[in-house]
Amino acid sequence: MYRPEIKVIDCTVRDGGLMNKWHFDDKFVRNVYLALCEARVDYMEIGYLSSESAFSRSEVGPWRFCGEADLQRVLLGEEKRIKLSAMADIGRIEQEDILPKSESSLDMIRIACYVHQVDAAIALAHHCQDKGYETTINLMAVSTVGPRDLNEALDDLGKSRVPVIYLVDSFGAFYSEDIEVLTKQYMERLPGKTIGIHAHNNQQLAFANTITSIISGINFLDATLYGIGRGAGNCPLELLISFLKNPKFKVRPLIKVIEEDILPWREKIDWGYFIPYMVTGVMNQHPRTAIAHMESDRKDKVLEFYDQTTSALEG
Amino acid sequence: MYRPEIKVIDCTVRDGGLMNKWHFDDKFVRNVYLALCEARVDYMEIGYLSSESAFSRSEVGPWRFCGEADLQRVLLGEEKRIKLSAMADIGRIEQEDILPKSESSLDMIRIACYVHQVDAAIALAHHCQDKGYETTINLMAVSTVGPRDLNEALDDLGKSRVPVIYLVDSFGAFYSEDIEVLTKQYMERLPGKTIGIHAHNNQQLAFANTITSIISGINFLDATLYGIGRGAGNCPLELLISFLKNPKFKVRPLIKVIEEDILPWREKIDWGYFIPYMVTGVMNQHPRTAIAHMESDRKDKVLEFYDQTTSALEG
Predict the structure, then answer these.
(1) What number is the ipTM of this complex?
(2) Domain definitions of chain A by residue range
(3) SS3 category, A215
(4) How do residues B284-308 score in pLDDT, each as one tens digit?
(5) CB-CB: which of B206, B238, B275 is closest to A278?
(6) Distance CA B184, CA B216 (A)
(7) Given an 8 Å threshold on Cβ–Cβ distance, is B252 in contact with A306?
């Protein structure tokens, strides 16, 4: 599949950081950055943009903040070779803490929101655009949103100046048929806008659903190295780049950084296909209960987790 | 997706056995059998059917042979609650070593063959049918077969009495679009026959490709518990059963047997998504080089494997 409009956004540090509170050291982040430059990936999402008052630096790593000084420790004053993105959560960043684009190494700010936060997200995105940034709005957990609420949110987004709207399968609950139907709905309700996809791998469908979304017309594609990310993780970047036929992309730098920097994290954190994540995906639930189970000393007691999760539906 | 014609074939012992030379003990095989009975899976493929002269029992476990005495140690003389299948390789089983159906606990014999072995496969399948068995022919490695050869093989299979023909993605090389095109081709060339799918997970597409095949009209579906199988493994049975909407199927017994009998094997053998398997899948190659790499002490040297595999294409 080669379509010049397609852009690939690596979310390794941002989404992977959800599993280790963004405690990636500078060398790790720089190595990922250099690999993505060599692979010619379009954007690196280097973390979340948060006000310093929203979290404590003694608890979470620098990529929860993405201050300009944090970014400079990775860029080392060199000219940037790919675009940098950061994600902002509603309520965790004050508008006055966002630097004008001219003083920042960030190119794009992506606003993550739930359906009831769409108005706040649009306001924040417009603020970022007015400061000079590219923006997207990533509408999360749409697998739990009813059709009327979703259409209303899409209509509001359609009237905004935000150029890119994301379809986010937060719970890894969608099959490819869902992606086809939703992509059609997004494209109809959001004429003239670019649509993005962010998939989770609870049912081993993140890559497949990303392919389906490409075929359906989606052009902004999120992925992470070796699929690292919250819970079951994301669409693996190395698979996506191998699939895309744009000759500019290179796979080898991705394999190299996976060997040197990602595989060591496999010893410390469990992302990927595990039964608890599969269960929350099939049941269309937030993965937090599965993550808590995986972090407990009963991680292999998968039947217990299944029984707890399914019995909560009864009575 | 609910379609009464759909049959699910568990290949845990047969395909998983490719990773441990079928050294599953009787308790393991019985537990898998009981779980599949409770889950109401249609068939259990319990191993390969081989002549005793083809292998040595001091080297490979009993499920490389599937002698009637082996099967009885699992069934314990009880009435069977699901159908049993065994796979036969051309050249590894003499016709005279196949019992008449009336003396065997097997219900189905599946003949695996490459495209140049189709005539031999049809002869063996007809022999098995004449002895009273259900049969299938599983045409392997079609991702490496040219269109003229494939059409010729399909036409020969179409003229046979064999009722079920399998589309086999031996190398985990196919994307869903390939599955759609091939399913259409199989159905056109094999009117009146049932088509099956056996997918491998090198690119995390085994489950997705199985879903695509169902939507395209395929009715015999192979899967294994937790995806255990050669190299990257297979379509995970627990995902497939969760997807199929036939209310007869139960997921809980599968989760239970995964916890008790499959997870312990994760400590001993590496199946699933690993970069070497991804590389052979993307490159449409047999996984044997990747398996050898994964069994070596350089398993995490994935860049070395990538370089060796891709440089073999040059010069």
Answers:
(1) 0.96
(2) 7-266, 275-311
(3) helix
(4) 999 999 999 999 999 999 999 999 9
(5) B238
(6) 7
(7) yes
